[in-house]
Amino acid sequence: MDSTPSLPAPQLFSLSGQNVLITGATRGIGAACAIALAQAGASICLVQRNPAEGVPPNLETLNSIRAFGASAEVVFCDLDDLEAVKHVFQKALDVMNGQIHVLVNCAGIQRRSPSVDFSEGDWDDVLNVNLKSVWLLSQAAGRHMVPLRRGKIINFCSLLTFQGGITVPAYAAAKGALGQLTKALSNEWSQHNVQVNGICPGYIATEMNEKLLSDPARLRQISERIPAGRWGEPKDFAGPLVFLASSASQYVCGELLVVDGGWMGR
């Protein structure tokens, strides 16, 4: 592994000249992270779902990035289409001048149901999007980054990487496995100067958690257990992600960084 550059502290966090491929950036945490990476100097390639026939694509994040003069491109891929996922990294390389320095796996889906009723279809959907697509993208990134001896891969895990949750068996299984995958890839690729780490969000006020936010009893139970006294916001991930994407984290390998207002410390 290369040593941490001897630079003034602010420059360690610069992403100038870096190309970032990020999934799940049309809204919520992913959108905030893509904008933060661009503000730190990176050029961004967004992976977005194929728009439905007759429906224009959601280009809000793309336009937000371009509005302040940063470079951004989009490649379209449905992450539940695993054959398409196998080709999306090359599509990104094609629009990013053959270079991807950072991969951020932020996309994810949720299905809630009592385990006795949880359908096989929901199980497969969650595992394919939240785990297998991440594996395929990470493997493609490794094949690109390892020979070049440089790169960062950042996976968005969860509190359910450590805990079981309630009525979310597939999500818990996928995020638990994703934590182990993050460590496994780090064990292999750190020696090649490719750092693989994860970010584990706590309870964040996003669309994915609408059912919890609209349930007064669960909202109260969860909120009372967060030492910070509030649910997180997408912008709470801008700093942690830029840190893990930058040279400031050169010696951080296989880490699962919890960003949860103190929930796990409780």
Write the SSE topology.
Blueprint: H1 9-12, E1 19-23, H2 28-39, E2 43-48, H3 60-67, E3 72-76, H4 82-95, E4 102-105, H5 120-148, E5 151-156, H6 169-189, E6 194-201, H7 210-213, H8 216-225, H9 238-245, E7 256-259
Helix pairs in contact: 2-9, 4-5, 5-6
Task: Give an account of the 3D structure.
Residues 18-192 form the Ketoreductase domain. It comes from Collybia nuda. It holds the Pfam family adh_short_C2. This is Ketoreductase domain-containing protein. With 266 residues, the protein is an alpha/beta fold. The protein has one domain (9-206, 234-257): Rossmann fold, CATH 3.40.50. It has helices spanning 9-12, 28-39, 60-67, 82-95, 120-148, 169-189, 210-213, 216-225, 238-245, and strands spanning 19-23, 43-48, 72-76, 102-105, 151-156, 194-201, 256-259. It has a seven-stranded parallel β-sheet, sandwiched between helices. Helix 3 (60-67) links the parallel strand 2 and strand 3. The two termini are 35 Å apart. 41% of the residues are buried.
**Approximately what portion of the residues adopt beta-strand conformation?**
5-15%
Low-confidence stretches: none
What structural class results from the helix and strand content? alpha/beta
CATH C-level class is: Alpha Beta
Give the overall shape.
Answer: globular
Strand/helix succession:
HEHEHEHEHEHEHHHE
* Count of helical regions: 9
User: Span from first to last CA?
Assistant: 35 Å
Q: What do we call the CATH homologous superfamily?
A: NAD(P)-binding Rossmann-like Domain
State the strand order across the main sheet.
3-2-1-4-5-6-7
Please identify, by name, the CATH architecture.
Answer: 3-Layer(aba) Sandwich
Mean pLDDT across every amino acid position: 94
